[in-house]
Design goal:
Helices cover 87% and strands 0% of the residues. The protein is mostly helical. It is rod-shaped, with a radius of gyration of 25 Å. 6% of the residues are buried.
């Protein structure tokens, strides 16, 4: 099995950290290695949170679909639509919007962490020591 690009980058940074004589380079590499490990941890957490939020969103969408069926029956004159039905649909819509917002924010946090690593590695790669 071939190592991934990230594994190669991590090994390169780790090896370079061990042989670097410049304190500036060591500081940047230390920060890069810490950020790399934090990113790995955060990725796993993000995947789990995305999976959970996706499950919650699907549940909310199913509940909204069921509530909308009651409204459709009411529109066709086949049943009654109560204030509690309207409140339920409104509440479910708000819940769904909040869940989708949390999902977007969760994904953005991961993107931000990846960009920090890219910035630190770019700083190391373009600096003279």
């Amino acid at each position: 099995m071939m190592p991934t690009e990230e594994a190669i980058l991590h090994k390169l940074m780790h090896d370079r950290f061990n042989i670097a004589k410049s304190s500036g380079e060591r500081a940047i590499l230390s920060m890069a290695l810490q950020t790399f490990l934090e990113l790995q941890r955060r990725r796993q957490e993000t995947y789990e949170r995305v999976r959970e939020l996706s499950r919650q969103i699907q549940t909310s969408e199913r509940q909204i679909a069921l509530a909308n069926q009651r409204v459709d029956h009411w529109v066709r004159g086949l049943g009654a639509c109560t204030e509690s039905d309207v409140r339920l649909i409104t509440m479910l819509g708000d819940t769904l919007a909040a869940q989708e917002s949390r999902l977007r924010n969760t994904k953005q946090e991961l993107v931000d962490a990846e960009q920090r690593l890219v910035h630190i590695v770019g700083l190391w790669a373009t600096s003279r020591f």
